[in-house]
Fold this protein.
Amino acid sequence: MATKGTTKPKKQTTGTTKAQKPKATSRKKSKKKSKTPMLAVLIGVLSVLLISGAYIGLNPDVRNSISRWIKGKDARIYGIDLSRYQTDIKWNEIGIYYDTKRDTITFEKTHECLPASFVFLKATQGRAFDKTYSEKKQCAIAHGYKTGAYHVLINDTNIVNQAHNFMEVAQLDSSGFPPILDIESDYVGKPYSEYRLKVLQWLQLVEDATGGKPLIYCSDKTREKVLNTPEFDTYHFWIARYDTTPPRSKDDWLFWQFTEKGKVRGIKGKVDISIWKGTAEDLENWRRSCWKDPAYREKIEHELDMVEL
C-alpha cells in the first residue's frame, strides 16, 4: 500500500554542454503523457455508451427497479421483522444504523439512524403460535407502524389447521399488511409438485377468509426452483437474499430481506432487516390494493390445539 505524503527526491541537474538532450527527452515524455488522458477519455466515452445501450435495452419494469436503487438513502424504505427472539424492545428508539460516507446500511453503531417504516411479526408456525405476537403488534401500532403477520408453513402438518391457526392468532384486517406465508426449506427431499399444492391451498384458504392477497416470503433459491410455476406469478414476493446485490430469481419481488444479522437501535441482538422496492407512497398504494373492498376478516369458529413457541 502506498504511504500518503511520501515522494521520491528529485535529482539535481547540473549545467552541462549536453543540455539539449534532456530537453528532447522531456518532450518525448510529455507526448506520452498527453496521449494517456485522451485514451482514457475515449475508453470512458465508449464505456458510457455501451452501458447506456445495455440499460436502454432492458425491460421497462427492470429499468424502473434499477433506478430506485440509485436514488439515495432518502428514497429507500426499510423495515424489520420480529419474533420471540427480540425482547425488551425500546419502541421509541428504533432506528436502522446508516453509514453516510458509504451510503449503505451498517451493522456498527453510528450517529445517524434511518427510521423503520414497517414491522413484520411472526404469528404462527404450523399449529404453534408466537406468544409475543399480540403484545408486539399492539406496541408497533401504538408507535405508528404498519404491521404484517407471517406464518411459517410446516410441510407435514394439516394445511387447513395451519390456515385456521394463523387467522385466529393474527387477527388481520385491511388496516395493516396482507397475510404473509413464510416458506422455509422443509420441502427438501419431498416432491415439489405436492409441496406446491399445499402452499397454494394455504394461500387460497387465507385469502378467501381474510380478503387479503397473501405475500410470499422465501429465498432466491426457493423462488427459482420450487415456486417457479405459473400459479405463483399472480403473487408478490418478499425474498431473502443475504448479499449486497438484489434478488436474482425474478424481478417480481417487492421486499428484499438483505440481512438476518442486522443491528437496530432500541433492539438487543440480531434483527432481520428488509427493504421495500419503491417509495413510501408506492408501499401504501400496494398495501391497500392487496385487500378486497370491503376487506374484513371473517371470524373463524374453530377449536385449535395450539402450543406456545
Residues 74-308 form a domain with the TIM Barrel fold (CATH 3.20.20.80). Confidence is low (pLDDT under 50) at residues 2-36, 45-71, 294-309. The first helix runs from residue 20 to 56. Helices lie at 20-56, 60-69, 133-142, 159-170, 192-210, 220-225, 280-289.
